[in-house]
Automatic annotation (TrEMBL):
SUPFAM superfamilies: P-loop containing nucleoside triphosphate hydrolases. The keyword ATP-binding applies. It comes from Mesopusillimonas faecipullorum. CDD domains: ABC_NrtD_SsuB_transporters. This is ABC transporter ATP-binding protein. InterPro entries: AAA+_ATPase, ABC_transporter-like_ATP-bd, ABC_transporter-like_CS, ABC_transporter_ATP-bind, P-loop_NTPase. Residues 28-259 form the ABC transporter domain. Keywords: ATP-binding, Cell membrane, Membrane, Nucleotide-binding, Transport. The lineage of its organism: Bacteria, Pseudomonadati, Pseudomonadota, Betaproteobacteria, Burkholderiales. Belongs to the ABC transporter superfamily. GO terms for molecular function: ATP binding.
Length: 282
């Protein structure tokens, strides 16, 4: 396993130290994950990763390295060639009602209102049975959480890009999942809207005490929201490094600390190239 680093280590030193603090029991733990295309070309090899309640883990890496493939495996949407995934200590081999996934495209159903799109997530397979009152309460809470109470009757074509992404997030929240898997959900948004969505993600994780795995190629986004950053790289992909980010939110006043971590991440990528792992630059 690659070493972990603490953001606070950069406040007095440019060299990160190993983190040795004990962790709470993870919600989700994956060990030795491997994945390959049907042709036999390996995508992932011996990847270990964990998620804990109330934390955001960002997975960084160049385009095409296997970040989205890793997300699909962890979410039970794709079976690994090797390795084990456990959700609260129980083996996971298929989609689970406590796991919710949001992709870069909101994928709202165009013939349904925003409210009915949010409700649609409650009809997914293996969802628990809810009374009409419980169902509506979940829908209302999710819509209010993302700030779309006044837009619940709008159709998808009447929503801005940011509103559509909020609706997609609300659809996940209505299921009250323990883990959110987010596959570059803010990549197509303008900078101001993207920052607003990042702030919303921080709020949602805090309010729901969920865990979130955020796939991104944007180092600044990872530094802005993540409690841990995992760098994926190589062919096949493996973990090149892991950084613990203990900076408080908002992080706008910690430019120097974030800059130091950015340098470490880029250095890890360059070192991987020098040692023969052919990965493109970020």
């Amino acid at each position: 396993m690659s070493p972990s680093h603490r953001a606070s280590d950069f406040r007095h030193s440019s060299t990160a130290t190993l983190a040795n603090e004990p962790y709470a029991q993870p919600l989700l733990a994956a060990r030795g994950l491997a994945l390959a295309y049907e042709s036999g070309l390996a995508i992932l090899q011996d990847v270990d990763i964990s998620l804990r309640s109330g934390e955001i883990v960002a997975v960084l890496g160049p385009s095409g390295v296997g970040k989205s493939s890793l997300l699909r495996v962890l979410a039970g949407l794709r079976k690994p060639a090797r390795g084990q995934i456990e959700l609260e200590g129980v083996a996971l081999s298929r989609p689970h009602p406590q796991l919710a996934v949001a992709f870069q495209a909101p994928a709202l159903l165009p013939w349904l209102t925003l409210e009915k799109n949010v409700a649609f997530g409650l009809d997914f397979k293996h969802q628990p049975e809810l009374s009409r009152t419980e169902r509506q309460a979940r829908i209302d809470q999710a819509i209010e959480e993302v700030g779309l109470g006044a837009a619940r009757r709008l159709m998808p074509h009447e929503l801005s890009g940011g509103m559509a992404q909020r609706a997609a997030l609300a659809r996940c929240l209505a299921r009250q999942p323990k883990i959110l898997f987010l596959d570059e959900p803010f990549g197509a948004l303008d900078e101001i809207t993207r920052e607003s969505m990042q702030d919303l993600l921080l709020k949602v994780v805090r309010d729901y005490q969920a865990a979130a795995l955020l796939i991104t190629h944007d180092i600044d986004e990872a530094l802005r929201v993540a409690d841990r950053i995992i760098l994926l790289g190589g062919r096949p992909a493996n973990t090149l490094g892991e950084w613990l980010i203990d900076l408080p939110h908002p992080r706008d006043d910690f430019i120097a600390e974030q800059g130091a971590i950015r340098i470490q991440i880029l250095s890890a990528l360059r070192q991987a190239q020098l040692t023969g792992q052919p990965i493109p630059s970020l």
